[in-house]
Amino acid sequence: DAMVIQNPRYQVTQFGKPVTLSCSQTLNHNVMYWYQQKSSQAPKLLFHYYDKDFNNEADTPDNFQSRRPNTSFCFLDIRSPGLGDAAMYLCATSGGWGQHFGDGTRLSIL
Amino acid sequence: AQRVTQPEKLLSVFKGAPVELKCNYSYSGSPELFWYVQYSRQRLQLLLRHISRESIKGFTADLNKGETSFHLKKPFAQEEDSAMYYCALTGQGGSEKLVFGKGTKLTVNP
After folding, report:
1. Do B95 and A42 touch (CB under 8 A)?
2. Could you say which of A31, A42, A43 has the minimum Cβ distance to residue B95?
3. Number of H helices and number of E strands within chain B?
4. What's the pLDDT score for residue B90?
5. Which residues, at least 6 apart from B102, have a Cβ–Cβ distance to it below 8 Å?
6. Interface test with B, best of A4, A10, A30, A94 (most B CBs within 10 A)
7. Is residue A29 a contact partner of residue A93, using CB atoms and an 8 Å limit?
8. CA neighbours closer than 13 Å in the CB half-sphere of residue A103
9. What is the largest CA-CA distance in chain B?
10. Cα separation of B44 and B84, whole Å?
11. Is residue A65 within 8 Å of residue A74, measured between CB atoms?
12. Chain A contact set for B102 (CB, 8 A)
């Protein structure tokens, strides 16, 4: 039973063309996170929501935005993807006892 | 500053041998420590958290505040333990952001 669901699993976009990745959860957790994970590297936190409160990491590029319209859904928007943004993007949730991760979306940039 | 150090990028052992994956941390306060595992082509998943003091899949980890370490141990490694292992910490409460180590790739040879 997938509790954190990311769509799509694979996303291909063109250089500079906006792209949106989505995440939904069935856990009713109040905290949701977006991570970027490049090959052979640890996940790097981009931002997180505590309920509706948005928390951006200091080194997250302005190119990355996020929306959380309700408890269940969270979106990652990349306004003008560059080649360096090709990575696995992980969504996670937390209800206070460790984070639960989705399968990730692998983003490729042409 | 919050930091998690996993000194070994790669670790290779034979089946049946003991394995220890090292993790040291730096945190001003009382962190919560976790081990996450990522099997090939699978999602990142929680393996252990120090507050639970549990054994999962034969793995244990003890928090040593004096040495600021949280090493992961298993007395007899199995081939199915081959995976990427990440040590991580967060502030108390469990809902704050995770700081990951760079990970250790464990290979258990037959």
Report:
1. no
2. A31
3. 0, 11
4. 85
5. A41, A42, B6, B9
6. A94
7. yes
8. 12
9. 42
10. 9
11. no
12. 41-42
Residue of B nearest to A2 (CA): B43
Which tens digits make up the pLDDT trace of B2-41?
Answer: 899 999 999 999 999 999 999 999 988 788 899 999 998 8
The pair of structure tokens assigned to A23 is 């995440």
- C-alpha closest to that of A71 among A102, A88, A94: A94
A84, A33 Cβ separation under 8 angstroms = no
List C-alpha distances in Å: A92 to A4, A32, B3, B5, B96: 7, 6, 20, 22, 12
Q: What angle do CA B35, B37, B41 make, to 5 degrees?
A: 165
Rg (CA), chain B: 13
Single-letter code of the amino acid located at A59:
D
Least confident of A3-7, A53-57, B26-30, B50-54: B50-54
Residue A10 sits at the vertex; the CA angle it makes with A108 and B88, to the nearest 5 degrees, is 85
User: Looking at this protein, which amino acid is placed at residue B51?
Assistant: I
Q: Which residue out of B48, B86, B97, B99 would a mutagenesis test of the A interface target, given it has the greatest number of A Cβ atoms within 10 Å? A: B97
CB count within 10 Å of CB A49 equals: 19
Residue type, B57: K
Angle at A78 (CA atoms; ends A19, A47), nearest 5 degrees: 130
Q: In this predicted model, what pLDDT tens digit does every residue of B72-99 receive, in sequence order?
A: 999 999 999 999 999 999 876 545 678 8
The residue among B99 and B109 whose pLDDT is bigger is B109
